[in-house]
Specification:
Elements lengths: L3 H9 L5 E7 L11 E8 L2 H14 L3 E4 L5 E3 L4 E8 L4 E4 L2 E5 L4 H10 L2 E2 L11 H6 L3 E2 L2 E2 L4 E7 L4 E5 H4 L7 H8 L4 E8 L1 E2 L2 H18 L5 E5 L4 E2 L5 H6 L9 E2 L1 H7 L6 E2 L2 E3 L6 E4 L5 H19 L8 E3 L8
Parallel strand pairs: 2-5, 3-5, 4-21
Antiparallel strand pairs: 1-2, 6-7, 7-13, 8-14, 9-10, 11-12, 11-13, 15-20, 16-17, 18-19, 19-20
Helix pairs in contact: 3-7
Amino acid sequence: MLSVQEAHERLELVPSLQISRNEPLARHTRFALGGPATLFVDSEDEAAFLQALRIAKESGLPHLVIGLGTNLVVADVGYDGIVLRYRGGAIESDGTLVRVQAGAALQELVDYTTAHGLQGIESMTGIPGNVGAAIYGNAGAYGASISDVVERVRYFDGKAVRETGKSGCEFRYRGSIFKRNRLQGEPWLILSAELRLRPGDAVELQKTSSEILAVRNRKFPPEMKCAGSIFKNLILADLPAAARAEVPAEVVKGGKVPSAWFLDQVGARGLSDGGIRVAEYHANTVFNAGDGTAAEVRRLVAELKRRVRERYGIDLEEEVQYIGFDSTSQP
């Protein structure tokens, strides 16, 4: 295994990399929480990024890849290893086919497609994060998901760059093969994608997008230090019969029940732990009021899960991922 200094020296030989030591990860997460990464490696160049990833893997040091940090909760002690980020963000189109690199912000893609009169992802306006993360987690809103428009994905499987069509992505509600592989073993890292959209009226698409963005910004103000909804919504058919019987028909949308409904029933709004709070206006919004810690996020999330589990026999599942924590102490 290489020392940190040896790994740093090897990385410095790769052009087009930006490398820093003890980089505070709070600067790179929307929660604005978390201690430093021993090494932080950033690049817009795909080849340089893949070379850096190979060096990190060969070093024997712990390493991981992040995006824009939207759904990350980083431990207060930080991450003792190498954190890499790919920022390649080119977007181009040929008719209704859009090619986009994984490091592009999802909002930039929405703005590009609506301006070009391409319909299919306008409802995803305001969803933070990059395109790679959106595909990884099958992001969506208002009944639409990124999987609806994905045609092909290029990815690195740990050995080589490969491509797969939509079926190979194995999309599920807020999930994909890329997410399952990361949780189960060798991650497949998304590099770029081809999306097939539909012709639309640019003015109308931009109007729709602006209206949705206004609603989202009221719910999740851009300056709010949060990850959006903290828990995934639930599929009605998968709920225990007793819990299913309690859910009012009017809250069910597309066969799903908002986690916020269950959280409301257990008095989640306004709960806090130190500087971490549940919004008074929405029970599925957990935010950093400015002086919170990652440990407080974990405790508050655990309390919310406990309340719902005890009342309904349901295990809420977070949308966020935890970095740098002891794996034996999950909420």
